[in-house]
Amino acid sequence: MIIFAFVFGYLSLLVELIFFHVPSVANTQNFFKKNNNYEVDESEYITKIYKWAMWKKIMILAVPFFFINIYFLLPFLYFFPNLHESKWLVFETNNWLIIIGTFCVIAGRLITFGSMLYMRKENKQIQNSFKLHVSGIFNYSRNPGLDGMFLFFTGFGILFPSFLIWGGLILYFFYMQFRVKIEEEFLKKLFKEEYLDYITRTKRFLLF
């Protein structure tokens, strides 16, 4: 079951990133090389980040992004027992946790993949052709794709429990909170009252 969750999780993530990726104004690389598809000059918050010194961009944007990508690869160490004998990499679990972890991985990927497909069906978010999604799963959460990712990696944290993986999950959560704030500032300027009304009736995430 662990192998199934591992293969299903990473394979579906790879397919999503290659074929169904949805661009974001908060992508780290956009702040090192401006993407002209996004008109963000009206947002003081985003403009301020663009004007950060290069060292600040590297420390606040690039370094966390690098470590988060390393964190995504930690479960691969499960297949190399001689590399995870320390207390920081201890992959030991039980049958109940395996069931719970597998459920979280599958449910998380279905939520994220479904929300990405829904968004791409409406528009591909290129050339400033944006649409505010407020129906379907977006009626319950403003960021269902992230809800799914949080659930997905929580599942991996249960299947491959270690201090590093759970520490990485915490780092990922706070980093994505920062990125969500950037996207929200962009959407406020783009959709104005429509978006302000949306955030008053829909939570940022499914549970909070």
TrEMBL record:
Transmembrane regions: 6-26, 58-80, 96-119, 150-175
Tagged with keyword Lipid biosynthesis: no
Top-level EC class as recorded in UniProt: transferase
Single GO MF descriptor: protein C-terminal S-isoprenylcysteine carboxyl O-methyltransferase activity
Signal peptide start-end: none
Record membrane topology: Multi-pass membrane protein
Enzyme Commission number: 2.1.1.100, 2.1.1.334
Annotated keywords: Membrane, Methyltransferase, Transferase, Transmembrane, Transmembrane helix
GO process terms (BP): methylation
Compartments where located: Endomembrane system
Superkingdom classification of source: Bacteria
Lipid biosynthesis as UniProt keyword: no
Protein name: Isoprenylcysteine carboxylmethyltransferase family protein
Organism: Flavobacterium soyae
